[in-house]
Amino acid sequence: MSFKSWRSYWEFRHAVKNNSRFILGDESKDFLKAIEETCPSRIKNISVSDSIWRAQIGYDNMPEYQEDIHVDDVPVPFTFERMKPLSNNASEGRANPKGIPYLYVATDKETAMSEVRPSLGAILSVGKFKPTRELKIIDFSVHQGKMNFFLKEPNEEKRTEAVWTDMDNAFSIPTSNTDFNSDYVPTQIIAELIKSLRYDGIAYKSSLATGYNIVLFDLDMATITECDIYKVTKVNFAFKRVENQYTQFL
Fold first, then answer.
1. Edge-first strand listing for the sheet containing 103-106
2. C-alpha–C-alpha distance, residues 170 and 186, integer Å
3. CB of 148 within 8 A of CB of 73?
4. Which letter, b or e, does each residue of 194-217 get, where b requires 16 or more Cβ atoms within 10 Å of its Cβ?
5. Which residue, among 228, 235, 237, has the nearest Cα to 109 in the 3D structure?
């Protein structure tokens, strides 16, 4: 089964956000079936020798004593256990619904630190992880940043590329604390489909750094080997003027 339209992702997104989320309609089911049949071309492997990274804002304090007198508290990284999500208290994420924890990591520590959006001067605990076995994931980063537009339906190959491009962008698009949780629904459903197909996780391009984010569906697919603390010494911002008919009044 191929995608019915180059706009299939947007039609699916509208359907699950506005019409039916838990009992999918036939069009949404067909869309997911098309993903299932085309995703083998996006398989990537993560080796047990690869390093992946996870950051969290904060740290622990270790008391320092001199002659049995407490003189100071020394900042130390979070414990290894603290560097993984709680198995029974997962917050909403781009790939996971509330209550179902996934392990969000990155391909480098700079990307991992950027993804937690720390403020200037913040101290982060940054853990280095190793996969416990070779992992097979689906890559949602191949066409990130590209745009699609067709005046008429293209051939099957271009339709497939266009839909995957839209999904790549959907996983990577920046979010804010004010975003509605329903914005996560399309990517959560797609991630759950990938999970149901027995893949180990997904990857997508970070919008905040040069690396890639990886979401592992099982918390035990990676184990932490070391943890350090880092302080944020510089934060860069870039701005772009929004062009629309109301700009002159802003």
1. 43-46, 135-140, 201-205, 212-216, 103-106, 52-57, 123-131, 222-231
2. 9
3. no
4. bbeeebbbbbbbbbbbebbbbbbb
5. 228
Q: How, if at all, do strands 201-205 and 135-140 pair?
A: parallel
Please report which confidence band the pLDDT of residue 244 belongs to, taking 50, 70 and 90 as the band edges.
low
Reduce the DSSP state of residue 54 to 3 states and report it: strand
Q: Measuring CA to CA, which residue among 227, 28, 197 is closest to residue 123?
A: 227
| Amino acid 247: pLDDT | 45
Residues 51-70 pLDDT 10s: 999 999 999 998 888 888 88
Cα dihedral 228, 234, 240, 241 sign = positive
Q: Tens digit of pLDDT for each residue in 88-131?
A: 778 889 999 999 999 999 999 999 999 999 999 999 999 999 99
Q: List the chain domain ranges.
A: 8-58+86-233
**DSSP letters of 3-21?**
-S-TTHHHHHHHHHHHT-S
